[in-house]
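for the record, two folds in this file. i put them one after another cuz i was lazy. first one right below, seq on top, structure tokens after. the second one comes after a little note so u can tell where it starts
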Amino acid sequence: MPRATSNSAANLERLVIRISSHMAVLKLNIIDPAWRPTLRFGIVLFLTALVPVYIWQGIKVYRTRFETLLEVLSVAGCGWQMFFRMYFYLFQQDRCRQIVQEVRDQRTVYGADRNPRMEKLFRAGTKRMLLAYRVIHLMYGTSYFFQLGPLIMPDPHKCNLPLALQLPFLPPDRNMVYYCINYAHHLLLNTIGVFILLPMDGVLIVALLNICTRIAALQLLLEELDAKLGTVQWQQTAHLDAELNRIIELHIDTKRFARVIYETYQMHFFSMFSVLCFVICMCMNVVARDPRSTLIPFGLASTGQLFVICMLGNVLYIVSDRLKDSVYGIRWYRCTVSQQKRLMFLLANAQPEIVMGAVFIPVTMTSFVTIIRAAYSYFTILY
């Protein structure tokens, strides 16, 4: 068992190191308490602050061609998401470190080092975190294939560049040097976007899956308490007070952690939902006019990002919904009156499901289906 415990802790630390290394690419490793702004961070911040300038320049250059202008607006949506969510690194450093540290401490808090079943549960949870982070890493990494657009499907209307954006005073159609500079600039913007959003969404995914694991751990503790209730005489359970109190305290701590995630990412969810809805609609508009558009992979990537976030939010909703059944399912009628009262409070606090919200809309698959259905209706009207 010590070897399994060591492997579980090592996998979790490996995940944190991977997120830190992706943050370190742009010198944004805010997980490190000793992190301080550097020159590279200043350059990244400057380029991110120029996003509105790039958008305005693209609108001016491509305003005469409607399809290309819609592509500019689609790219602008992702640029605005990167621009607005940059405050995660500027103003939410302490929250990020708190979330990562609490994920690291989860095994110790729930006693996984003393309970083989609990250790197995957290080991499986850590594997799910690693898998989810690899999937989102792959999803963001595929955005680099978009840079091959000029080779696969050149578009002279945007000077055969991957994106419908141009640097001011450096028109790419003037000479090859300006074209190469603009192409390199698109590659740089893609890299900045990936390594700004990947660790940020990675911390979010890890946190959501961690809450699910904590709820599963509470269910395991309730099962163990129920097994002990079945072996003692009726209402002779005063010696189980400590275990019941611990379950209640851990449930309170889980809800507190979920509230921290909600407060940290609420505006991020709102930004993602509003921007990605806009991007999907713009992509639908372009595809309705030109089914061979290079914007199709861009729209699929945006839909994929929205799907992953909504799916994890829905998983959390389902897992938290099961907790109240676990509370009621134990042999509460064998407990003392005092313990029954505490179980009533626990059941009442487990009734409202843990739901992440994007200000006006819950982050669930219901919201995702509603958005896709609206986008499809919009596409049908256009087509």
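(here's the note) second protein begins now
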Amino acid sequence: MIINKNSLQPNSTYRLMLFVTSLVGTEGFSVLDFETAGEPHSGYCTPSVSEGVSLETEFTFDCYNWQDESIPLTYEFRLRDDPISYGKSPRSASTVLPAGSPEDDYQLPINIIIKNAVGVAVVETLFIKVKPSSKLDPCLSSIKEVGNKLTNYVIGERNELEGFLKKGEIGQACQLALSVLKEANKKTDCGQTLSQDTKTLLSTTLVVKLTSITPESLQMSRTIMAVVIVATGKQQDKTCDSCENIMNLIMVFTDKTNKLLLTAINDLEEPFTAELEESAASVTGCLTNILQSASDGSQANGASGENQISQKA
């Protein structure tokens, strides 16, 4: 008998009846009554400030008074679907964030997943306003200045990314990386954008630093791959000199993730979870970008070869 756990409601009572008929026609039945676990309740979450500036304001999100019989509770903080802090994290998380969209009045959703020991979760959503920084706007500051400010977050002496990594704060490091990438690749009203060299430097640096980490869990792996997917997206340079090395690093990292996935899948006591599904989707996203990069690189090399033949002719 297979029960779809997704069809079960929290804190509800169910009855299973099993009827059996033997080969000689004898009949029997059994009844099982059970109650599903309730979801965390009676708590709330709040931001330290409701409005700030991209990559300048440090937002702290705190949760209070959440209760449940199935303890301990875990808290996962996300910007939409991008992890900020995960797993057995404390009831608070701090991070910088990219600017919101002007179409949404610069509002960003922060989703906080509060989960009990048996996997029943409730989602608390906070909305905060994050305005663009004039210091990171190529329309208001020189492109060189903006590029330098963004690279200083991840490269150079005592950069913030390295600080997070040394303290083992992978979630905060990855959210900083995502914020930097999104600011570097955003469209501007005046049409001015960072040079492709600066974008490539940022993306390759982040991929190299983050894929060198051996993930301790599927959540950590998914958090890192969220950055890798953005760093290797369509907007990135597909003909960079280090692209082959970057693809190799990503392949090695996805292999590590696949081993974690296999371990989880082979654990008969561990049911199929959202973490498994999200991690598998992240691996697919990374591999899709790699295949696309390889395809674009081959086309670029083919076009270059055709130009050389044309010039010789």
